[in-house]
Fold each of these.
Amino acid sequence: MKILLYFEGQNVIGRSGIGRALSHQKRALASAGIEYTLDPNATDYDILHINTYGLKSYHLARKAKKMGKKVIYHAHSTEEDFRNSFVGSNQLAPLVKKWLVGLYGMADHLITPTPYSKKLLRNYGLRQPIAAISNGIDLKRYYPDEYKEAAFRKHFHLSETQKVVICVGLFFERKGIIDFVEIAKKMPEYTFIWFGAVPMLSIPANIRRIVKKDHPANVLFPGYINGDLIEGAYSGADLFFFPSYEETEGIVVLEALASQQQVLLRNIPVYQGWMQDQQNCYMGNNNQEFKELIRQLVNHRLPNLTLAGFKTAQAKSITEIGQELKTVYQAVLQLPYDHQIYSKVTK
């Protein structure tokens, strides 16, 4: 069994969650002993596992079908998570949905990160088998490290006692960036750092103003940072606060959990079934609730749930994901499907 993993536009979206998903897939397949190639011109593969949605992705999927290859589409994106992102995204969203449905409809099997995103796809009218498989997490990379944590604090000139709240995400309204800054304005005693970036001309003017100048001094936008600094930030901050309104999973949440960090999320449907308020994280519904929870969490006035959160990440480790992908690949190669084979991951 040989898999062609395809990812279009690495230079454009490689820093996004989808970009990290491809890296995780490569490692997951290697851990499961599955041969793969990244060469779109290859012909000696059995299954095309495609992650992206451009014209090159469409043409490669068509080519694979004509060659009699099996096609799996990884449905990372939905109409819902396209909205409130780039300039004009809300106006384009219905067309994006139509395009996604057309692409996904070409596949023999779909994979999507969560039961929530699987439900959205079913509501689009897609009827192929759909497996809900997490994008996974590299546990070793995010394990707390004193050296990395010290490097993070030194880089941002943070004292040992300075309370720090971080978020990681693109500069999208749906990620909750407006709320993040509004809350920071009312909590000047804490430092708020938002890691991540997108080309500034691609986002609405009000978001550009927030990032460039319309934010208080206690809010930092250092841009995209990887390696020891971001890994040290995950475990070395006092809280990971992710106020996103819509996700298909949220790889950054898994990264925070793997870092054994306290996690505060918005209570939205995507977390149903794997994140639970006051069990492995804390959740809020509005800015007032977030402010109260932030204050209590950074001052350690609530039970510490980091161990439970870490166990959640362990269940989504790259090795676990490799086995789940292998199960789906085997089922796809045995068309017509034996639903019992992959019932574990498609329920």
Amino acid sequence: MKEFDYRRADDVSGAVALLGADPDARYLGGGTNLVDLMKNGVERPARLVDVRSLPLDRIGPADGGGLRIGATVTNSDLAAHPGIRDHYPALAQAVLAGASGQLRNMATVGGNLLQRTRCGYFTDVTSPCNKRVPGSGCPAAAGGEHHNHAVLGASDHCVAVHPSDMGVALTAFDAVVSYETADGPGELPLADFYLPVGDTPHRETVLPPGALLTHVTLPPARIAARSRYRKVRERASYAFAIGSVAAALDVSGGVVCDARLALGAVASRPWRARAAERVLTGAPATAEYFAAAADAELAAARPLPDNGYKVTLMRNLVVAVLSELAEEAAR
């Protein structure tokens, strides 16, 4: 076992300073991912900076409308919040689909967005993995086990998928991430938060070194009140997705006025389906056009031999979820 220093931060600036003093330090929230990675040797931090006592555990109104969610809000509290359930139901559904109650009670919003892939090659320190050891190779892309890996936006350097359910719904609703660094605060859209996998899969986000994620802001979005999250997994109990969809639909007179669509478990980051949204907007709210929108998004898919099923799965999933939302709007 590798020994490590443990510090509990008293304020945001103190947390950033503690981490900045040691390049091998890590922030500790609920620990539901980091502690597992420490146990199997993937993560070997010299210091843990516990941020659970920071005043970042509240959900409140955002300037200009919407909601501002603290980074240490637990997944359970997020899913149970009336403002989330009433105005962003797909987000509540995504959180509830993501893990058991025990895990949701510990896991945090910030930690959820920053969790690492569950690719078996990444979590096995005896295997090569470009995400864990840059330049060592990607066995999954080279013909290894890859049935639940990426079909969109991948590269020969990495085909792992991002595991977050919450991130898919937040991406669909144009969430904005706020963070703090030694040089001051910053923010950016969640859609720009994750880096394309490219040839540097070990670099997963655009966060500056030592940055502490402090809040996630959901802008006001009337369309989000009619939204749904659907997750497909390999067993009925809690498991990571093999495909998921967060969708919202505004329909008037049988025509789609606006649409939001994001896909999960298909890429190294939650995938905003912009091509599909363009097809949907102004089109009849019918299964035929929902399928056309899915096809437009999935035209860029590059499946590997054992995960081609995902293209069909995601097409059917998009059509099913959008059809349900359209039927609900017509009532």
